[in-house]
Amino acid sequence: MNPLFNPLRMGDISLANRIVMAPLTRNRAGPGQVPTALMATYYAQRASAGLIIAEATQISQVAQGYRDTPGIYNREQIAGWRRITEAVHARGGRVALQLWHVGRISHVSLQPSGRPPVSSTGRRANAKTYTLKGFEDVSHPRALNSDELPAIVDEYRRAAGAAMDADFDGVEIHAASGYLLDQFLRDSINDRDDSYGGPPDNRVRFPLAVIKAVADEIGAGRTGLRISPVTPVNDAGQDSDAPGLFSHLIDQLVPLNLSFVHVIEGATSGPRDAVPFDYEALRRRFKRPGQHGAWIINNGYARSTAVTALASGSTDLVAFGRAFVSNPDLVFRLRLDAPLASLNRDTLYGGGAAGYTDYPQLDLAAAISA
Questions:
Q1: CA 92 vs CA 19, 37, 144, 197: distances in Å
Q2: Among 43, 179, 279, 359, which one carries the catalytic annotation?
Q3: Which of 160, 275, 295, 335 is most buried, most CB within 10 Å of its CB?
């Protein structure tokens, strides 16, 4: 029996298999950051995944960092997402929404009235973002005042409620990849001297408030968290004690009994062993007796390595990213151990159907007879 195809109950969400479609930014939202019918086709094509985690979606206009990325903070956006969840559910799929605030990884042209983006710090990231002019350097941010943070926590809470209004099965809070919550977690970015900076107890305070608010709003069994302890993307320098920081964060999560924790191992889209880190020790801290949440691993897994990880018990699910871009029938291909279609990198960000919904699927009869 291939463990990739075993069912799983993850908190309050029942999954048909252990294959997760990772959130993938594709920059194809319509005017007003409203999800489109083309996006509904794209996700429905991939509904055979045990769980789709839909692309990063901003919780407010201030949270936006890239052009043509969707939102979840007004009625039009909720209605657009509902068309997508209906399309996925019609094919028997399950789908969660990733809640996103980019923090300092933004540009003034994307911010309300051209104001600076906000962050834990006033230091600019050495990073680029995607604007109407193409890829540009991110703008200098403004450090948030501590009395502004409760309003952002409330934006996450309201966005989670909006995701339920759009009929998502759950949400994933994006606390990875050098975005806002990661900007508070890492002492390489967080240079605050208030109660949200300094020791790990302080730096986890804001992300933990977000997690608790979302779990209170929609239920912990539908709430997940994405972390990336050592990835350097978006100028996220290494924390001085990443194992200690993320062990402390996981310890705070255990009593909440979340639906899942989704871990990017190593450098996003790069080597998993770029920086030494004991992910198994972190998993053991989360998977304590009485804890019903799932552990999801991510970053460059192939069929063989995913099967090995599941069979060894070192994870509950495996997330695949770019393989799902060019293989809408990835689950079928993994079942048959069929070759994967190659990716067209030129069409990853922005555009229309080309390189989005036009990737071919295997011919069922021919694949089975081969």
A1: 14, 19, 42, 44
A2: 179
A3: 160
Asked if 66 is an active-site residue, the reply is no
CA 243 from centroid of its chain's CA atoms:
21
Upper half-sphere CA count for residue 313 (Cβ side, 13 Å): 3
Q: What is 3-369's CATH superfamily? A: Aldolase class I (3.20.20.70)
| Other Cβ atoms closer than 10 A to 219 | 17
Q: What is the pLDDT along the chain (370 residues), one digit of tens a residue?
A: 899 999 999 999 999 999 999 999 999 999 999 999 999 999 999 999 999 999 999 999 999 999 999 999 999 999 999 999 999 999 999 999 999 999 999 999 999 999 999 999 999 999 999 999 999 999 999 999 999 999 999 999 999 999 999 999 999 999 999 999 999 999 999 999 999 999 999 999 999 999 999 999 999 999 999 999 999 999 999 999 999 999 999 999 999 999 999 999 999 888 898 899 999 999 999 999 888 899 999 999 999 999 999 999 999 999 999 999 999 999 999 999 999 999 999 999 999 999 999 999 997 656 665 5
